[in-house]
Amino acid sequence: MADQSIIRTVKNPKLTLMAFQLRNNLALGDEPIETADHLWEKCQELGKTLNYPPLETLIDRLDQHQVKIGFPPGEDDISNDYVELLKPDQSLRFDAIPDPDKPQLKGEVYPLQIHDTYAIDITFFCRPEEVVNLAEINYFLNPNYCLLPANIQSDLGQTLILFAEPLLSKSDHYQDFANACVEALFPSSDAQRLLANSPLVGELFGSPIFEYDTGEYNPSNSIHLLIWFNCSPRTQMLEAQGNYYQLLINLLCCRNKILYSYTQARWCYQQAKDLYKQLLPKVENLKKLPQNQTEKLANLKQELIKIPQSSFEYGEYIQQMKLQLNTIETNLKNYQRYLNQLNNILIPEDDLPFFNKFETRTKNKFIEQINVDLGYLIPGQNLFSELINTIRGLVEIEQAEIDRSLEKTISILGVGLGMGGIAASTFSSYVERPLINSNQSPSKTSINPGIFAFLLSVSIGLCSGLLIYVFFRRKYKR
Question: In this predicted model, what pLDDT tens digit does every residue of 319-331 receive, in sequence order?
Fold first, then answer.
């Protein structure tokens, strides 16, 4: 932590927010996604906070193509890879309502489209040669913490860059000064997260630059901060020329898209793993099916409805992971290209180790981890297929057994009823009067012809059905 007893001041400070929002995805093609205009809507809220009406109407000033802001990203159209959306001025400058007791806050908004992503640069600064106490810097450069991730909430995340000339005392050091800037710009909880790990230190255009990062993979929750001190006239001149700017914002855009894709891939992996966990008990349940054929068939048919749906979702998660892996690999190539171009314009003593470290981490951590995850999940697709085929086979067997039992029952009843009917019709033609025992007198009990025919037909039907049952039983045993 920085020494609170030292009064620190900075000259000509400016704080830049570079935030990124996805415009398109593969599912919607050229159509912007539902949340594409999120950054422009945040600018409207910022305009209300700062009481600056032109910022509230920024969305109406942006360049539109077929009633949509920006352009559909073309794979072969390089001109659409970096498009300034505010024409003809490219940026919108504004002055906040002045406070008679405080220096006046000034700002500039620079909206862009980088391929399939919207980007915005919001920079707050003071009047030239203004000296600001660090204890008050948040009032001028980040009023109400309006530029923090919790307020901007862009889906691809953001980076904050503080550029200032530190007015150091003899007992002060650059890193202590940078830590003090962190404590001044952020709420204490966020400052503690940023200061939990030592920053990576580099040099840009002859002046020290520090990278602070909370270390979270999800860019919408992560805080990424660069503090760049202006310690020489050469630094001020090269920064003012701005030759590095387009390379830097492209580099940060690739960085955030890599982090976003990695977060999405890990989420898909977790969802697929949960589906796989649900699959294993179903395999065990096949060994515990009820003995009753009707219940067994009903259970199997129910699983045959659920499991293919889970199998489809499982395959979708794997496909999404492959798409996210491809996105990471593509953005890594672009990241390396922009980093090489940035290195080409640096002066000999410059060094940006945090950019190189992220490149290494992407190759050795992100890409490798997704490949490992896919290696675990892909064999599970075979288990889903085998389980579905097994259940289908069992359903066919059980259905065939039930159908065969029904066929046997119908055959027995049909033959029995048919033989009984034939017997009844045949004998009823010959039995015209009651049957009387020769030893009995006519007044004794006699059998009615109709009843006799019915009993005879029932007996013949039962015997015929019994013979058919024995026949089917011997047939199926063989």
Answer: 999 999 999 999 9
